[in-house]
Amino acid sequence: MPTFNEAENIDEALRKVRAAVPDADVLVVDDGSPDGTADLADGLNHELGQISVLRRTEKSGLGAAYRAGFRQGLDQGYESLVEMDSDLSHDPAALPALLSALESAADLVIGSRYVPGGSIPAWSWHRRALSRWGNRYSAGMLGLAVNDATAGYRAYRATMLRQIDLTAVKSEGYTFQIEMTYEVVQRGGRIVEVPIAFTDRVRGTSKMSGRIVVEALGRVTWWAVRDRLLGGGRRRRRALVA
Ligand SMILES: Nc1nc2c(ncn2[C@@H]2O[C@H](COP(=O)(O)OP(=O)(O)OP(=O)(O)O)[C@@H](O)[C@H]2O)c(=O)[nH]1
Ligand SMILES: [Mg+2]
Questions:
Q1: C-alpha 93 to ligand 1 mean position (Å)
Q2: Which ligand is nearest to the CA of 121?
Q3: How far apart are the first and last CA of the chain?
Q4: Which ligand 1 atom is nearest residue 87's CA?
Q5: At what angle do helices 173-186 and 210-224 cross, to 10 degrees?
Q6: Cα 139–chain centre separation
Q7: For residue 46, which phi and psi values (nearest 5 degrees)?
Q8: 172 lines ligand 1 (CB under 6 A)
Q9: Which end of the chain is more exposed for a tag (fewer CB within 10 A), N or C?
Q10: 0.85 cut: is pTM over it?
Q11: Residue 64 Cα: closest atom of ligand 1
Q12: Mean pLDDT of all residues belonging to the chain
C-alpha cells in the first residue's frame, strides 16, 4: 500500500484490510509523509499485527514505491502480491475475490472498473473520458486484451513478477500500471479482470497531475512505435532478461 500524506485514511484502510484478509501481511510503502502516516501505520501494527512500514526518505512517485514494495515482497518469498491505494478508493472487501481469482488460474488479476459489474464514481465527463479513452488507446496501441490497464488494484503471482526486470520498468503513475500489464502480456501471462466499484477519495488530497497523463500518452505511443514499426527493442530486452 503506497502512501503519501494519507494520515486521514490509513487507519480505516488498514483495519478494513485486516478484516477482509486476516492472514495477510501488509506492507505500507511511505515516502516520508510529513503528516505522520508512517507512524500511524506503525502504531496500528501494535494493535493489529502483521503490518510493516517501508520508510523512504523522499517522495519519489508511485512507480518507485511499487518497485520497492515488490522487491521487498519477492525477497521475503511471498507467492501472491497485491497492490492497492491507501485512500479507500479500493475497497478492501474485494481482496478475497482478487486473491481467489489469482489462485484459480491467473498470473495477474486486475480489479477492473470497465467490466460488467465494475463501476466508477460520478466523475466529471472529462475525467471519465480521459480514463476510458486512455485505456482504449493503450489497449489498441499495445495489443492488450484488457479493459482497465490503468487500474492500480491488482494481485500478481510472484512467479510472474520475478520474470519482469523491475529496474527496467521506469514509468510512474498510471503508466506504471500500463507498462506492467504490457510486460505480463508479452510473457504470455494469464490476466483476469474482476469487477470492482472504484470510489472517489473522500479525505486527503490527490497526487494526480497533468504530467502523469502526458507521460502515459508519450510512453504508450513510443512503445507501440518501437515494438510494432521498428520491430524489436522490447524483444531484445526480453531475450536479455530470459
Ligand atoms: N509512496 C508513495 N505513495 C504515493 C505517491 N503518490 C501517491 N501515492 C499513494 O498512491 C495512492 C494513489 O494516489 P492518489 O493521490 O489517490 O491518486 P489517484 O487515486 O490517481 O487520485 P484521486 O482520484 O484524486 O485519489 C494513494 O495511496 C497515495 O497516497 C508517492 O509519490 N509515493
Ligand atoms: Mg486515489
A1: 20
A2: 1
A3: 29
A4: 27
A5: 20
A6: 17
A7: -65, -35
A8: no
A9: C
A10: yes
A11: 32
A12: 93
> Which residues neighbour 215 within 8 Å (Cβ) at sequence distance 6 or greater?
171, 172, 173, 175
What pLDDT does 182 receive? 97
CB atoms near residue 73 (< 10 Å): 20
HEC profile of 104-166:
HHCCEEEEECCCCCCECCCCCHHHHHHHHHHHHHHHHHHCCCCCCCCCCCEEEEHHHHHHCCH
CA-nearest of 105, 113, 96, 81 to 2 is 81
Is 227 touching ligand 1 by the criterion CB < 6 Å? no
Give the tens place of pLDDT for each residue, 201-223: 999 988 777 788 888 999 999 99
**CB under 5 Å of ion ligand 2: residues:** 85, 87, 89, 201
User: How far, in Å, CA of 121 to CA of 135, rounded?
Assistant: 17
Q: How far, in Å, CA of 35 to CA of 22, rounded? A: 27
